[in-house]
Amino acid sequence: MRLKLILILLGLLLLALGAGAFITWELNRPIADSGKVEFLVSSGESVQEIGKKLQDAGVMNSLFFVSYVRFKNLTSQIQAGKYVIPLTLTPIQVVELLQHGTFDVRLTFLDGWRKEEYLRYALANLAVDDEAFSAQFLVETKNLEGYLFPDTYMVPIDIDVQNLVALLNRTFENKYSENIEPLQPKSGLTKEQIVILASLLERESVGGAEELETIAGILIKRLKSGWYLGVDATVQYALGYQEETRLWWKKTILAVDLQIDSPYNTYTRLGLPPAPIANPGLETLLAVVNYHRTTPYWYYLHCKDGQIRYAKNSEEHNSNRACLE
């Protein structure tokens, strides 16, 4: 009898622990991968009423909301008002938002993104009016492609465009002055050239200092020799948004694409494109100023398996193309 009681109690304990673990997991995982909900908390609404509205809006389970708010003694902390709730938040973050109207979120902008990708990511994770934020962001960043540093930032969830853009650009300028400016004289390149080349390199390489510096050496060698740079990424940039894939970089470049009439097309226009095509990270900026000055290569390509192959002439390059099949 005693053993049976012990087993029952043990079972109940395990059940409670399992339920607790499940609830903790539910409260700490993002509601969805994307999307937003406009949500109104009216003055005088009870926690149960707010919970039901949250559940009806697809934000979170009403029971979870009510239980968590009561357990944390937050009933009196929920503030009336109109909210924009990004569905990338966790339920716990939603409760925090409803208490304060704002809190800090972590934004991670990736190396090689163009400004439109920055915008799409920001909209998915910030509690802002998408239309107004988008319009102002594109105005504020009109001449800042390449100068918005990719990094992880903690920002208020309702940060305005001016402050976000200023943060991204200020971080770039600080990183550049600390790490790149001291090395710039020996490179023989201007700041503008360095940033443009780094943006090309960011899209043309899979990374690693050796590969980055070698490709940088090839591109600069072509540039100084009056060659067309022939960088696929510049064509992708010129082609812009691809409706069928919902991406800003076309996956497969066709022969007809190489003839696009654009100042960014380095297959038909000599020299560098007029501006950066993406926002480079520190490793890529460093690779440009530390480029291989005596590289024997003129060509490079990435094989189907991701390996890079270099060539000293067009014959070698054409031979290397076999690895693309």
UniProtKB/TrEMBL annotation:
GO terms for cellular component: plasma membrane. It comes from candidate division WWE3 bacterium RIFCSPLOWO2_01_FULL_53_14. HAMAP family: MltG (MF_02065). InterPro entries: MLTG-like. Belongs to the transglycosylase MltG family. Transmembrane segments: none annotated. Keywords: Cell membrane, Cell wall biogenesis/degradation, Lyase, Membrane, Transmembrane, Transmembrane helix. This is Endolytic murein transglycosylase.
